[in-house]
Amino acid sequence: MDSLNSLHAVLERVDARLLSPASDVRIWATGFPLLDDTLGGGLRAGALNLLAGSQGEGKTTFALQIARHSARRGRPVLFFSYELEAEVLLQKVIAAEAAELGVAGPISVYQVRAAFEDTDGADGGLPERLSRFPGGLDALSTVSEYAPKLMIHRSTTTHTNLEVISSTVKEVIAEHGESPLIVVDYLQKVRPVVEMDEEQAITHVTERLKDIAIEFDCPVLAISASDRAGLEPGSRMRARNMKGSTALAYEADVVLILANKADIVARHHLMYAANNGDHFKEWSVLTVEKNRSGRTGAEIEFKKHFAHGHFLADGEVVSEKLVDERVFTD
């Protein structure tokens, strides 16, 4: 993209794009309809999107589901994984695809992992092993169709700095002819090229990831860790609790926070619900804390199916009253 644009040039570029049979896509749908509606269609080119939440709430699963949806639609995805091996992510992807086929008792992440690790007591290659379970072979076939579009970069804090991220994006663009959706799991693991203290480093990384989104005209979805205060009992994580610096919330175009519904639902819902509201634990609430292109403050709940590596995509607007403080019952 040119740095200097007259409005006349912008108008001509937009008009040409809209009239082109193979027009450039400016919005990447997430695959979560209610979230896409809230965000004005999905993740935007040139935007930095942050996804935060407490540990174990499914941030990687949520981001991977967005990545899978994009790849399935033929868009390249570049997933920088500082946390999990590519094989582990692939296991989640296969189990999720099986679950979304609608078959009874679909293959689970655990069963896929056993097949990958040769601990399932079966013989043969991956197709033979997965075919023993409902949806296993069909899921493998589906994943194989879009697998070339979903690229996992096994990242480390020692070697995968901002320079590596930028050069890898360029490689993907050269190979696929278009900019990818960039996922970073997670932001606080990325290191600048030169040594800085933690707050300066996170500020620099956040600003540079925003620059990368603008430079390559694509969305960046970065997972963010919480600071200690955001994980304290009795507190609900907010954008201010993202670990590092105020630049996180300031630079981001979109900030999404995942929380366990049981932790943030108002006390009276717990008191009068069966089993002290244990069923609320099956749901995650996604709060849109910041959104430069649409509504802010939306709260959407998604049912967790972590045994099958995904959330149910058709979420619901939260109907119960939520509170800022976690509520505990005896």
What report would you give on this structure?
The protein is an alpha/beta fold and 330 residues long. It has a domain at 39-260: 3-Layer(aba) Sandwich (Rossmann fold), CATH 3.40.50. The chain contains 13 helices and twelve strands. The protein has helices at 7-19, 33-38, 59-72, 86-99, 109-116, 126-130, 136-146, 162-176, 198-215, 228-231, 247-251, 261-264, 267-272; strands at 27-28, 43-44, 48-53, 77-81, 150-154, 181-185, 220-224, 254-260, 283-291, 299-305, 310-311, 316-317. Strands 3, 4, 5, 6, 7, 8, 9, 10, 11 and 12 form a ten-stranded mixed beta sheet that branches. Helix 4 packs across helix 7. The termini are far apart.
Instruction: Give the CATH architecture of the domain at 39-260.
Output: 3-Layer(aba) Sandwich
* CATH class designation of the domain at 39-260: Alpha Beta
**The CATH topology of the domain at 39-260:** Rossmann fold
Oligomerization category of the chains in this entry:
single chain
- % residues in beta strands: 15-25%
The biggest beta sheet reads: 10 strands, mixed
